[in-house]
Write a structure and sequence with these properties.
Layout (H helix, E strand, L loop, with lengths): L1 H10 L9 H26 L3 H6 L4 H30 L18 H12 L8 H26 L8 H31 L10 H12 L8 H26 L1
Helix pairs in contact: 2-4, 4-6, 6-7, 7-8, 7-9
Subcellular location: Mitochondrion inner membrane
GO molecular function, one term: transmembrane transporter activity
Keywords: Membrane, Mitochondrion, Mitochondrion inner membrane, Repeat, Transmembrane, Transmembrane helix, Transport
Length: 249
Amino acid sequence: MDCVIKTYRRESVLGFFKGMSFPIGSVAMVNSVLFGTYSNSLLLLSSTSPQERKAQPLNYGYVFVAGSIAGFVQAYCLAPFDLIKVRLQNQTEPRTRPGVAPPQYRGPLHCARSIIQEEGPRGLFRGAWALVLRDTPTLGLYFLTYEGLSRWLTSDSKEPGSATMLVAGGFAGIMSWTIATPMDVVKSRMQMDGLKRRKYRGLLDCVISSARQEGPGVFFRGLTLNSARAFPVNAVTFFSYEHLLRFLS
């Protein structure tokens, strides 16, 4: 609540929407990469089509491996967009106030251009390894949780109903963010590390330094908000995915 109040006082309502344009612009691409890679990985591993899987449920091992592959691929596609979002969100300077220095970045494109000029093209992938370590196992468990809950809530030989998709998707989202939050904290710190001066020598140094200075609890900052957001977002995501698959097939 303190964060909400201070953000509003310093940056007005617009402060809550910083860094939104890039995620909105990239969400379709990122999700198509994620679910497309997942579906094709399942096809490669199991040699069965979505229609054939209705009669013969997938091996859970295939689901986890396919989800992990999808998470790995998504992480590298997402890395530049996520970096720009984090940099913009961490600008606390108000846009217009007399006597106050303007923000370092004027928008997403200016942010991307500045990073390339100051840190080189590799700068756009700062924190990418933390993102890979966050998404690879987490998304394997994400799809595994959804598949397991869908089967548990659905009668034999029937397709999951809309309510099942929403509930299973929501809880899969909460579970994934519970696991992902520690590495998400590390990822965000690594992404901000190149902004003014280098504080960490690498990913492991970031983990050790953060734990020493702020205690183990630092790795679970933001978990409550992440979980509150995760349920509705992922419920709608899986609901849309399943119904689109049925429509297209």
